[in-house]
Amino acid sequence: MEDLDALLNTGAVPQDERTADFIAESRANRSFCYETAERGALRVAEDPEAFKAYLDVQSRFLRYTPNNVLLILEQKPEARKLGNMAYWRDKNTFVKRAERSRPVFLLEPGKEYRREDNTIGQYYNARKLYDISQTTLAPSEWGLGKTYGDRQRIQALISRTPAAIHTVEKEPEGAVFVPKEHSILVQKGMGAEAVFRCLSRELAHAEFANGEEGYDRECCGFQAECVSYILCKRYGVEPEGPKDFGKAQALLAGLSPQKIKQELAVIRDAAGKIAERMEKSLSEQKRRQKGQTDRQQEGR
After folding, report:
1. Region (Disordered): which ranges (predicted)?
2. CB–CB of 184/203 below 8 Å?
3. Would you list the domain boundaries of the chain?
């Protein structure tokens, strides 16, 4: 009993010590993120399969920066939906006890600071997130799979496009962006998925051109194929994707991790702009459909 009494007589951990431990842990987590993202960037630049896996992750997390997509790729490439413990509690589920020691670390912007040269820098904080597969939700309750009809997808894809779209009798590539005319020519008679694949590719070219009539499509051909691949994966179309993922090596080999992330951001930004327009269109379609359904029910 005396041993137990002695065990219970422990002092509180001083506040300063707890603060120091928190700072040390935060610093270690940030260092882990920096090192992991750099390792992922170099792997993506050297390994075609890793580059393809990166595009798969980016398609599911299109709003995430390349840095954080690389972090997901290196830690949990099969992740589908991420949130912290509070987020999952709000969704009436919990992170499994066995998974709590296996978070996915991502970086989020923190406070700004002034450097010695008077320029403004920004701190980054490492956040502990958990995938939906690490929660107590059964896979049947995830509700992640969205399905779209062919017409619904195409209508969303051509909504508010930066280039006019015209159908033509024959186009060897299925579709082609013509910079001088700010238009995209699409071959008549193709199936819906083929239209989505080639049109998403050419819309990427239109984004890259940014209104420049002298745009050379050869400079961004591979990137446009990557944008199409991301959009196909995101919206349920079987992608053709780049015919050779090894082209990523020609684009990225020899670059620093930071430069690799910048090149990946070009692909992500173009895909993000197209997807943003698509999401607005899909939401509008959903509202119109609901309005029609409500009116039909009122008329009964």
Report:
1. 277-300
2. yes
3. 14-141, 150-298
